[in-house]
Amino acid sequence: MSSVRVLVGTRKGAFVLTSDGTRKDWKVDGPFFNGWEIFHVAGSPADPNRLWASQSTSWFGQQVQRSDDGGASWQPVGNEFGYVGDPGDHLWYDGTPKPWKFTRVWHFEPSLTDPEVVWAGVEDAALFRSGDGGASWQELPALREVRGHEWMPGAGGLGLHTLVLDHADPQRMFAAISAAGVFRTDDGGESWRAINKGLRSGHLPDQDAEIGHCVHRIAMHPERPSTLYMQKHWDVMRTDDAGENWYEVSGDLPTDFGFAVQVHAHEPETVYVVPITSDEFHVAFEGKLRVYRSRSGGGEWEPLTTGLPQRDCYVDVLRDAMAVDSLESCGVYFGTTGGQVYASADSGNTWQPIVRDLPSVLSVEVQTLP
Amino acid sequence: MSADAIGTEVTGYDAVPGPVTVRVALPGHLRALANVPGELLVKASAPVTIGSVLDAVERECPVLRGAIRDHGAGARRPYVRLFACEEDLSFDGWDAPVPPPVVEGREPLLVVGSISGG
After folding, report:
1. CATH number of residue A136's parent domain
2. B75 touches chain A (CB under 8 A)
């Protein structure tokens, strides 16, 4: 019988949640790396027992932890992230130059085919790759050449938070950076270009600006690699030409601010977002925790509320904190800044909390195991 | 090597030239990371400086590379402080000698995470 393993990164450690395919009863293991911020935990599609965890604190910097047994044990691997050459400056919040400086790994994206290969999106924004199981990391510096000196951090920092791999074309990748925008490579990272046409960002004096858009998260269905969905600082967006043109699909959402966006495992036109009140408040809209689902690729959305708190709820759901499994009845999962991890085994129709009182959740990933 | 591994009585200073054993007290997060249950004992060659002790710490526990000093330039991380014998050594520079009681194994070099963040 299939099973699922949910990988949770929190402000104070990592947790591994496991269940069989019914997804009713859960085993909670952790905390791992207690007391450290775990921005992201990810599993290799090529070897599900190989996991990666980004472990950091402001005091003691970055560690990369690797597990080869599905999270039962972990070992630290290489943690040196050196930019190629002198990276120079990017822009600070006030528009003044600020030297590029590595702070932490925000996101791991393991290779689809090789368990030794993993990419790391980092702050200050850059993309690194390891081809030796994490022992060493090499930057793909061409990304910063796309006007990197003009990039400016979002409120959470200048982080490369999303890397989407094209399942049909291993040379094509999409990287998203707050607050620079989305970038695409068609040659495995040798060159990149900004793909932000159609994005509208009120904080920019030039609405057609090539860069400077605060993209919160992008998502793709593996079988529809030219269609991507985006939760932007404001607006839910969609492209059908691999980012050449974006158009808004916020439709009838109660608010189009938010962080997370995901696509159903078997229905490329079924999309999930969690509307958040605004960039000023960062809490669930109207005190109700609602996942919104569109079955039409955006535009028309329905609230999913069964099993979720519908009063006095003021948590947030961060950009890396939503995931889907690939069981026949698609499971949807998300974690909150209040420490709850919710699961739905029926595509979002009903929800139950797996755990209620973890530290603030930064990331949620799911592995579907045979 | 941890002090617990060889017993709590710490000796090891040898007045003759050559490596001496220095006690290093790490903060809890770094002890957990390096799997060091108590004080860390490292061999440092004369002249024993703050930098040479940290070099020895990083040789003994490679996982601590980048955790006390940045990779690359090797600067002390901003929220890490170094103390010994009730003195703040954080700004003394890597070539500064450690106090004699540390060289003699009577006092540890303290690596401390700053109290900050509320």
Report:
1. 2.130.10.10
2. no
If DSSP codes are grouped into helix, strand and coil, which group holds residue A298?
A: coil
Longest dimension (CA), chain A: 57
pTM of the model: 0.95
Residue A298 lies in a domain: yes
Chain A nearest C-alpha distance from B33 (Å): 8
pLDDT in tens, B32-62: 999 999 999 999 988 999 999 999 999 999 9
Q: CB of B43 within 8 A of CB of B58?
A: no
**Interface contacts A/B by beta carbons within 8 Å:** 43
The interface predicted TM-score of the complex, written ipTM, equals 0.91
Q: What is the pLDDT of residues A277-328, one digit of tens each?
A: 999 999 999 999 999 999 999 999 999 999 999 999 999 999 999 999 999 9
- CATH architecture type of domain B3-7+16-113: Roll (3.10)
A85–chain B Cβ distance below 8 A for any pair: no
CA distances from A175 to A40, A69, A122, A261, B102 (A): 16, 29, 11, 15, 50
